[in-house]
Write a structure and sequence with these properties.
The chain is of the alpha/beta class. It has 14 helices and seven strands.
Length: about 325
């Protein structure tokens, strides 16, 4: 009886806002995975691609909850892992029938489709051993074969995404981003695609929990007044956001200026990374944001501050190992 009375008493204590936020976030993640495990086939879940199960669940959920108020942009599809999960989500979406004409060419897919780095070649050779691959060659045929049954849903746009300008008359409801490997690409994506996002649009950043591309994090932090965090996985790579209100070209200009010099504003950008660290919910994610700050300082040629940020991450989170590349870059000899 005493235990029951204690539980009742504890249940009536006021909860801190941070606890409430974490509790709601944990519930969202649980629901995300429960839906994915319930509806995704074994074939879909085992699709060979460079995505965590959390990434897959987020793209599947995006398709499943698509409302039909704008197009879907899959920016950086590789061999089709994100695309096939969007497609399957759409096929399980009660708003649409299997041959619904509203889904024709609904997913605009962008990728360079070029083997330009070792890990891409290694992944292709591992998962497609019957094919021949070589550096500086295209793997577009792999994507096309993987999505051949669903080509009616796909508007494929191969090549350098910075050569494309998104048309103003095509509002975007879902924007999945996994190609911002360099500052000019991130800058172009923000300027070309973000003004076409409709209110309540979903943005998925698949590289957000890697520390190597600080321009991704900073691009979202410079526009944080427009977004609400949607899903932060306790592990994995992706983070999603909801757009609170439309972003105009003037808003982009105010946040970023007219070129990429915004990335060199060290005082503003490091303060934004500090804020982002404080806003993240999970220790592992906070750890990666500290490492992101280290990489940002290194890119700004300040190795003293870079090593300080790295050491801060290691001291704050001693049980989380850094990636080998980051350890080699910043660990003191």
């Amino acid at each position: 009886m005493r235990l029951e009375r204690l539980k009742e008493k504890l249940s009536k204590l006021p909860l801190s806002e941070s606890y409430r936020i974490k509790k709601r976030a944990k519930k969202k993640v649980k629901e995300l995975f429960n839906t994915y495990y319930k509806h995704a086939t074994d074939e879909l879940r085992s699709f060979p691609c460079m995505l965590t199960e959390g990434d897959k669940a987020m793209y599947y959920d995006a398709g499943r909850n698509y409302r039909g108020t704008g197009i879907i942009v899959d920016a950086g599809c590789f061999v089709g892992g994100t695309t096939i999960h969007l497609v399957n989500g759409l096929l399980h979406n009660d708003r649409f029938g299997p041959d619904d004409p509203r889904l024709a060419k609904i997913i605009n897919v962008y990728d360079l489709f070029m083997i330009d780095i070792d890990y891409i070649l290694e992944d292709l050779e591992k998962n497609y051993p019957d094919r021949e691959f070589a550096m500086d060659e295209s793997f577009q045929a792999v994507f096309e074969d993987n999505l051949s049954e669903h080509q009616g849903m796909i508007d494929l746009k191969p090549g350098d995404v910075t050569k494309y300008t998104h048309p103003k008359d095509k509002p975007i409801e879902i924007l999945g981003i996994d190609l911002c490997k360099a500052l000019p690409i991130t800058d172009h994506v923000v300027r070309s695609f973000f003004p076409s996002l409709i209110e309540d649009a979903l943005v998925i950043h698949q590289d957000f929990m890697h520390e190597f591309h600080p321009h991704i994090h900073l691009s979202m932090m410079r526009l944080r007044a427009f977004f609400t965090p949607e899903i932060e996985l306790p592990w994995g790579c992706s983070v999603s956001y909801r757009l609170k209100r439309k972003i105009s070209d003037q808003d982009i200009l105010a946040a970023f200026g007219s070129d990429t010099s915004w990335y060199s504003d060290v005082a503003t950008n490091t303060a934004l990374l500090d804020d982002l660290h404080d806003e993240m919910l999970h220790d592992q994610i906070k750890f990666y944001i500290l490492l992101t700050k280290a990489w940002y300082f290194a890119q700004q040629q300040d190795m003293e501050q870079a090593r300080a940020a790295y050491n801060q991450a290691i001291e704050a989170h001693p049980n989380i190992p850094p990636t080998p590349a980051t350890k080699r870059r910043f660990a003191e000899s």
